[in-house]
Amino acid sequence: GDVLVFAASSVKEALEEACDAWSERSGNRAVISLAGSSTLARQIQAGAPADLLLSANENWMNVLEADGLLREGTRTDLLANSLVVIAGDPAADPLDLLSPDALATRLGDGRLAMALVDAVPAGIYGKAALETLGLWNSVAPRVAQADNVRAALALVAAGEAPLGIVYATDARAEPRVGVVATIPADTHPPIRYPLAVMNDAGAPAAELARFLAGAEAGEIFRAHGFEIPAQGAQ
Amino acid sequence: MTLGLSAEAWAAVGLSLKVSFWAVLLSLPLGIATAYLLARGRFPGRQLLNGLVHLPLILPPVVTGYLLLLTFGRRGVVGAFLYDTFGIGFAFHWTGAALAAAIMAFPLMVRSIRLSIEAVDPGLEQAAATLGASRLRVFGTVTLPLVLPGILAGTILAFAKAMGEFGATITFVSNIPGQTQTLPSAVYAFLQVPGAEGSAIRLVVISVVIAMSALVASEWLARRMARQRGAT
Amino acid sequence: MTLGLSAEAWAAVGLSLKVSFWAVLLSLPLGIATAYLLARGRFPGRQLLNGLVHLPLILPPVVTGYLLLLTFGRRGVVGAFLYDTFGIGFAFHWTGAALAAAIMAFPLMVRSIRLSIEAVDPGLEQAAATLGASRLRVFGTVTLPLVLPGILAGTILAFAKAMGEFGATITFVSNIPGQTQTLPSAVYAFLQVPGAEGSAIRLVVISVVIAMSALVASEWLARRMARQRGAT
Amino acid sequence: MSLSVELTHRRDGFTLQAGFESPDGVTALFGHSGAGKTTVVQAVAGLLQPDAGRIAVGDWVLQDSATGHWLPPHRRRVGYVFQDGRLFPHMSVGRNLDYGRRMNRRARDPAQERRVLDMLGIEPLLDRHPAGLSGGEQQRVAIGRALLSTPRLLLLDEPLAALDAARKEEILPYLERLRDEARIPILYVSHSMAEVARLATHVVVLREGQVLRSGSASQVLSDPATVPALGPQEAGALLAVRVEQHHEDGLTTLATSAGTLLLLGVAAPPGTRLRVRIPAHEVILALEPPKGISALNILPARVLALRPGDGAGMMVQLESGTDRLLARITKRSALALGLEPGRECHAIVKSVAFARSDIGAGGAV
Amino acid sequence: MSLSVELTHRRDGFTLQAGFESPDGVTALFGHSGAGKTTVVQAVAGLLQPDAGRIAVGDWVLQDSATGHWLPPHRRRVGYVFQDGRLFPHMSVGRNLDYGRRMNRRARDPAQERRVLDMLGIEPLLDRHPAGLSGGEQQRVAIGRALLSTPRLLLLDEPLAALDAARKEEILPYLERLRDEARIPILYVSHSMAEVARLATHVVVLREGQVLRSGSASQVLSDPATVPALGPQEAGALLAVRVEQHHEDGLTTLATSAGTLLLLGVAAPPGTRLRVRIPAHEVILALEPPKGISALNILPARVLALRPGDGAGMMVQLESGTDRLLARITKRSALALGLEPGRECHAIVKSVAFARSDIGAGGAV
Ligand SMILES: Nc1ncnc2c1ncn2[C@@H]1O[C@H](COP(=O)(O)OP(=O)(O)OP(=O)(O)O)[C@@H](O)[C@H]1O
Ligand SMILES: Nc1ncnc2c1ncn2[C@@H]1O[C@H](COP(=O)(O)OP(=O)(O)OP(=O)(O)O)[C@@H](O)[C@H]1O
Ligand code: MOO
Ligand SMILES: [Mg+2]
Ligand SMILES: [Mg+2]
Description:
Chains D, E: It holds the Pfam family TOBE. The complex is a heteropentamer, with one copy of chain A, two copies of chain B and two copies of chain D. Chain B is mainly α.
């Protein structure tokens, strides 16, 4: 039968491709419902008929796990990602994040586009990284927070903000922006996309979960810029 | 004719039409009744009712969706009752999208109708009463027909709003292709992919064309009614 | 009195009030003019104007926000011109939030006013003309005062909508605490975080109280106007 | 059936306190603009709930504030012709006319419909909408709508004011028939004494919300004391007469209590009881019956009272047989003729002096 | 100033094709309901743009479809009293009255305001709103509003229909003064011949959108051929007279071309030119002047023409001095008196037979 996958919006294309591959193989269909991680989590709390959840937000996954909504032992960190600083010009000069003034100087009176720094994962990680780098206090007043990473990306792509902090995967997909710096992974908690099978899910769901964690799907995710975390890192 | 859109996208168009149609059709009687109460009623709690009707307009749509989820969700008070008693389920079903659209469009519908009712000359209703029409029949034979252009306008406005509703819908019934993925949800999904703006724009154009056609048709109908009344 | 809300949340409340106030106030003259054109005008392109006005209602708010970004952004056609010529910038500024709110609320405002204008007896305008009033003065002395309750209703409706606007605003001007973080943006942020529902709900209640007060006040004012006219 | 009204209603600046009983037929409400006529009519229709009062048609009580009884408008079966039209703009004239029948779920009555359409001359308008009608056309349709609802009580608020004399002439006989045959009580607001005299069995004169005079039409109209309230040109007596004979030259003799009157163009068959209004200013007084004169009616009369007016006029009340007459002459003539109470004289009235609107069908006077 | 109107306008089912010239003063538009009177008035006001036509007041052209000239309503300075009130509901009566002055940016004229307020009796209403007024009160305010806008042209569409006789009597002299002193052309729609005769210098009879008759008031009204269009009770001649003397007993002698008339209650000083309407049905014919009779006016006359009516009536046109008179008598009387063209006789009219509304001030007849 069909498998209903609830997935964070930011994994749309990669997940679709992987699911298509699985459908061809298994003859089952995967239906993907995309929304923000918090929305998905709340819907599952309210009894949504999801079979699988691929979230971009570990906190919400923790909540669902605590509520006993996840099938025991099925939670894995399926994907990992990294943060980059982008500029609205594909050929922009690289930026040295270790120099204390470089970011602020490059911004000038422009804005640094990020996802919501206290609510949305990409924003939370970005803020953590800037704090670790000792840059947060100087740029905080210049941060423009979008409701999700894609919106932050759009602000930079449209030339509205000179710089932005987004996932590496987002930066790859948008030709109007260029990566000017990669944020060191050790400046923020690891960026993980947890996957879990829901309690009421049928057999095909577990099968899809296994497929997504397998090598073939891994290739597809890598092709879209995601990283595959070492297993057992939950 | 695919206009470069996937079957999924076309399914979203079809679903949005279905959702908006039923949302508007089923909420219309309630909308007319509420508008009449607000326009002509003198009862305690009128202001409360008025406020309640406007609530979806005031709240950020996400909040409305969230409240719907809490109320009409499978574990919500009303939702559980309806499901257990009548087998009616809204959660994650297209009917839920219709409910969300209806609630979001309701204030607009009621506003339009109410203004038209207030513009009806009470002298005409009095005249009908002296000719033997009970309050109900006065409403049916005088008030309602005079308000028809307003009802038409309100209905189409509500339809247009329902076609564009996104926040409450995605929060309440999620974004399941073929089941709850309406046109705006599909647009949202496309917007999540850099470079898919083309598809998003094509969908938006379709939605605009549909809503505009409805608007223009309703304007034309309203003028026709007015003209018919105006002379000969 | 903090009601358990942070200074930042209170700033959002204040900003939303400011944004909604200016959005409504500045769009009002244009709203009245547009409503008048749509109600009484007979010109080619009337239907086009009508459609344009309704666009923000039909489009998913995110799309409207995106279009605003493309048009009024710093690199947008209009935005660049306004910035270079008058130094008016919308990007990441509360004025941009007001612009977004105004545009989203505009169809509601125009609808209300237009319906009231259509309810004005043209016989009264004719009478004013025979007494020497030019078209403009007929409008100012007869049409406008008669339409005042409709304008009031439309204004408050627009205000309520502006208070609740989220999608277009955050897409266009993002969320900068103290500058563009409106009440709905703050609510949205709270809703993203597990366990912050309490703060979200407190903010929602504040927003509802404000909008409801405005609605009730406007109803009361409209009734007063009607009563004053009705007798003595 | 009798109409009994007793009302108290306060509005700022205006207090209505009016009570009258009209034994039968048509009650004319007379009074200056703003006197409260429409207010009374609205209360009878149930469109205005007065502070206190009792309204009854025969023993059918429409309202009694003592018992708290109040019948809603749609149960009162009134045919109300409003001062301001109030046609339904979304219905054709035909559907407007048919509305009352439909609301009361009655079968069509084609003969009645034909009568009303012909009388009002509105057949050509049936498919039109009210917005396209002239002022008088609208009023005619409004009258038709009220009549076709087969009311038990007719309320007419200046129904004929917008119509020309010829049209009035066609409608008045129909109202007379309604009064006499269908025996529907009619409350009639009008500024025209000719209309009032022709139709009314009872006249109520209102003034600033109070009843100034109320009584039978003949009493109120032939009483010189009423003259100031009506205006001297409107004064005149009502005579009950019987049709005697139609002559070949088109004249008709009418029998009065004191002799015969010769009138032109009376259509009723011999034996019919009619009412004739003789306006006071139409009556000439002579001591001897004159000769070689075109006026054909000479009634013997005796002076009852003389009431001088403000100016040069004088109102003379006469007894002729058992009828009362009013004559308005100049003081100079009264002096020249030596008129005084008890004096015998002759009242001369032209045959053509009776406007057709002064001749009403049947009814008590 | 003269008013010249030439109009063609088609509506489905109705075609207006009317042209008339009225040399000066008041033009009465007379005609059945639906004849097109309001349509003409609206075209003159500029509220209806006729298919073709020319409208001018003196040499001020309001519209000329030949040249494409068309003056918008607010530039025409018309004072229009609508058949249906149209007071501004959001303004007090006072502000309604003041509206025209404000729109034309003129200074207040307290004397004029006082005159109009007193005449219409609307001073107590100044602070009220139209919705709270009775039908007649609304109409009076509408008249006041039109008058106070100091118009160059007055358009009155049945302005007095809702008013009682006493109130009409107060308003008519004012309209006469406007006509004579301010020399404002007035287009006057009315169903009342008394009003028309009193005011009109010119009468236009419309019928189904066509001009049936148009001419000076005295011509149209004293022409027996007009009778069918007006109705026999409305027929009557207009006489130009001069006030001669006021007597102690309140009577006034008026000089006519053939003798004197004795009337009551004429207020104008000796020498004033007046117009007097003598309704045809008020005139008695006699071969010899009668004696011992209360009627005080006996004018020598000569029969010009006899025009039998449909029934028993006969219309007699008389020449008395240079004036024309109309008398309506029975065929039987005509036979008995042996009336025929050329025959000398006496026309007898009671002094009180002149309704006050039949006596108009000045103006040409
Ligand atoms: N708006 C309209 N549309 C179409 N026909 C109309 C309209 N107004 C009036 N008519 C028609 O035009 C004709 C003339 O109307 P008009 O109002 O001029 O009559 P009138 O002489 O003023 O009558 P009344 O004395 O009843 O007021 C009538 O047949 C009427 O039905
Ligand atoms: N809705 C109202 N509110 C307050 N006062 C009113 C209202 N309607 C009428 N009046 C007042 O009540 C009084 C009586 O009005 P009504 O309409 O009964 O007069 P009417 O005798 O019918 O006069 P007309 O002959 O002018 O129609 C008037 O003084 C009027 O101003
Ligand atoms: O996919 Mo998210 O919820 O925008 O981080
Ligand atoms: Mg009245
Ligand atoms: Mg008319």
